[in-house]
Automatic annotation (TrEMBL), chains A, B:
Protein name in the entry: Recombination protein RecR
Physiological role: May play a role in DNA repair. It seems to be involved in an RecBC-independent recombinational process of DNA repair. It may act with RecF and RecO.
Domain of life, per lineage: Bacteria
Domain Toprim: 81-176
GO biological process terms held by the UniProt record: DNA recombination; DNA repair
C4-type zinc-finger residues: 58-73
UniProt KW keywords: DNA damage, DNA recombination, DNA repair, Metal-binding, Zinc, Zinc-finger
Family: Belongs to the RecR family.
CDD domains according to UniProt: TOPRIM_recR
Pfam families tied to this protein: RecR_C (PF21175), RecR_HhH (PF21176), RecR_ZnF (PF02132), Toprim_4 (PF13662)
Amino acid sequence: MEFSSKLLENAVYEMSQLPGIGKRTALRLVLHLLRQPEAQTEHLTLALGQLRKEIKFCKKCHSISDVEICDICSNPSREKELVCVVEDIRDVMAIESTGQYRGLYHVLGGKISPLDGIGPQDLKISSLVEKVKSGEIKELIFALSATMEGDTTNFYIYRQLEGLEVKISTIARGIGVNDELEYADEVTLGRSIMNRIPFENALKNS
Amino acid sequence: MEFSSKLLENAVYEMSQLPGIGKRTALRLVLHLLRQPEAQTEHLTLALGQLRKEIKFCKKCHSISDVEICDICSNPSREKELVCVVEDIRDVMAIESTGQYRGLYHVLGGKISPLDGIGPQDLKISSLVEKVKSGEIKELIFALSATMEGDTTNFYIYRQLEGLEVKISTIARGIGVNDELEYADEVTLGRSIMNRIPFENALKNS
């Protein structure tokens, strides 16, 4: 791509550094900004700059927060002995939106992934182990994705906690509530049969 | 989507104002920036801010440029009597990349589109008419997209130029050079038969 303007080329280059945004999309986005009032670009750059400079991570759960201790961790009505281990803040938001969970979270900040150069020391694992050691947690719920990396991370944490008194569970995998069996993948369907639950329990939850 | 951080919510909102970027994608992009060094966000916001504030449009062809008269318009080796009428700078870049065109451009900045509230007065049409009236242009090539809006815009300009001495042509529409006939749409294939060219001409161009 040949640009007639260095300013344009530079903006397109920086935009195309974002994941999933190629040069063509970047050019489309940048030209869109040029057609909009100058205020829109100002608001965008200000919001991104402020976020990156002023963002805090909750000292307890490591989730993104505007304050030192996030709203969830500082909420007295949440169950402090129940902690759900997730990868990032998107998982927290997804679980919060169900309205079904009243415990706390622990945000690891990623999964162990040797291919991407992410080892256990890059994640917030030691602070989780400390929390468990201090005895404040009764149950941990693993809610990482069911990929090789997710399973590896679960297992690594599990090994770190061996011998400590804490119940460890993992979220149920199975057929989605509104999904048809015939369209489910074999692994999910298989797990969903292996991990079947008493019908009376299902009645209670529905 | 419920956010635990106003800073995050604001950044996601501004990002999702870009076309084709929904809230989920915006969140993914913003979280990516948070994981990268602070410099990346700085470079992005600086590049966008500078572009929006300092961008110039060439006084002759209205294309994006860092200077008053763009490189193409000020290039003495381009044919000044031949002007290609395009919608925006992406079309200029596409035609330039062919290396086949040695004339100048005129960037309209859009197409006439009543549905989007874009009328002739929103486009750089009057300056094109002035250029033709001044007698400096021998041939205009319409290279707008072959949509209803593109055709309307072509026809509007054509009417404005009635009685003036200028040759008006439009780029050839037909089957792509490497495309198979069986996969071509009927309209394109039909046009490509109606507008067939002498075989000797095709030989010369290949």
